[in-house]
Backbone:
């Protein structure tokens, strides 16, 4: 095996990214406090060519050197919008026809491996604060909640790790076509 060089990876430019069709998923960050997590989620959103990222509440916005440190420029490619209140972002998404999925441990949540995305639907994935998770008032607006099965002592992942796991599971139906 030989490690591929950057010029062999078929990467597209930011301008090309903006012209390509997108995976119909928007990530909503509900008061995510770590700029490194925000940057990492931008990078994951770029990798799966997601439609966008909604930054809400205390979540920082680009341009910011700490977001750029982990996003590595993905914040320039992926469309993003800021909302003071996550509930306002969710209302907009519902009006725009998105199925809103909270990623949280709640009564009646669906285990991620049992969720079958509909290729004709658009999804909004809500990820919460590193300590408090997705707020209850936002959970109340969700159409469904997904939960990642966990078997250790901690029953929580870092929000950027959660994003990688969930977004791959949802996006693979589109990105592998």
Residues:
């Amino acid at each position: 095996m030989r490690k591929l060089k950057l010029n062999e990876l078929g990467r597209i430019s930011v301008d090309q990214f903006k012209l390509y069709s997108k995976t119909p998923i928007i990530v909503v960050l509900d008061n995510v406090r770590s700029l490194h997590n925000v940057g990492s989620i931008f990078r994951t959103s770029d990798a799966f060519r997601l439609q966008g990222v909604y930054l809400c509440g205390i979540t920082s916005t680009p341009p910011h050197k700490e977001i750029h440190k982990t996003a590595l420029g993905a914040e320039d490619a992926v469309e993003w919008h800021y909302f003071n209140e996550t509930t306002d972002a969710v209302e907009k998404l519902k009006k725009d026809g998105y199925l809103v999925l909270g990623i949280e441990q709640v009564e009646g949540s669906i285990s991620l491996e049992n969720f079958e995305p509909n290729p004709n639907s658009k999804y909004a994935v809500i990820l919460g604060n590193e300590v408090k998770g997705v707020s209850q008032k936002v959970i109340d607006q969700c159409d469904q909640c997904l939960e990642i099965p966990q078997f250790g002592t901690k029953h929580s992942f870092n929000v950027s790790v959660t994003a990688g796991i969930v977004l791959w599971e949802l996006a693979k139906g589109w990105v592998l076509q």
